[in-house]
Write a structure and sequence with these properties.
Helix content is 50%, strand content 12%. A five-stranded parallel sheet has the order 2-3-4-1-5, sandwiched between helices. Helix 4 runs parallel beside helix 5, helix 6 runs parallel beside helix 8 and helix 8 crosses helix 9. The chain is elongated.
Length: 217
């Protein structure tokens, strides 16, 4: 009732536990193992289409490492400062100077036993990056992340709604999947907007309210 009256929704934070794995169980297991290991393979490259969950996994990994007391750094399309665990999202967006920085960072992390997580939309061999950087990215663990099917997206939407503290009727989920954008980040953003709309109106989630949100109302 307090949430309803005050219009306050809990902040949703990407974690490895709230990542709906689908066909990515092996990837999730490998990431957990790499984060928990003090030695062994410390480089991991994740590739796949936009909206498949690459950013979720990188942000979740950084959060898990930070909660374990490690220094961390995360950046998207640029190279962050050195840390024990560094994540670089959307590697294909790096300009020439940043590619040099990432090459140096890769070598530094390897020498110091730090961890480097990198994501991109293509496998390392097909990236439009300098040759030596493409080679380095292919040296570590490389996993393709597979987008969720509709059943798995339903699970992810229901889980996200529970995390925000509201019930999501099945007919609302079906309408959103049928008429919303197909990538999961866009679906979750629509769900967040629906939750906020419901809180303002002090009403439960429904298809008519979802239609208002999707129409910009």
């Amino acid at each position: 009732m307090t949430q309803l009256l005050l219009g306050i929704a809990p902040e949703w934070i990407p974690t490895l536990d709230n990542f709906v794995a689908g066909r990515n169980i092996e990837l999730l297991s490998a990431l957990r193992h790499a984060l928990g290991a003090s030695r062994g393979e410390r480089g991991l490259y994740i590739w796949g289409e936009a909206g498949a969950g690459k950013s979720h996994l990188l942000q979740a990994a950084v959060g898990m490492a930070q909660s374990s007391g490690l220094t961390v750094a995360y950046a998207c399309g640029v190279v962050p400062e050195v840390a024990q665990v560094v994540a670089v999202d959307d590697v294909e967006k790096l300009d020439a100077g940043a590619q040099v920085e990432l090459f140096a960072l890769y070598n530094r992390q390897r020498e110091n036993g730090g961890m480097l997580l990198v994501s991109g939309e293509q496998a390392p061999a097909f990236l439009s990056l300098r040759d030596d950087l493409r080679t380095r990215l292919g040296w570590g663990l490389v996993y393709q992340i597979h987008a969720l099917d509709d059943d798995e997206k339903t699970q992810a939407l229901q889980q996200h709604a529970r995390a925000r503290g509201f019930e999501l009727p099945g007919e609302v989920t079906k309408y959103l999947l049928r008429h919303g954008r197909r990538d999961l980040p866009a679906l979750l953003a629509t769900l967040d907007a629906l939750d906020e709309h419901c809180l303002r109106l002090k009403r439960s989630a429904s298809v008519p309210l979802l239609k208002e949100v999707m129409a910009g109302g």
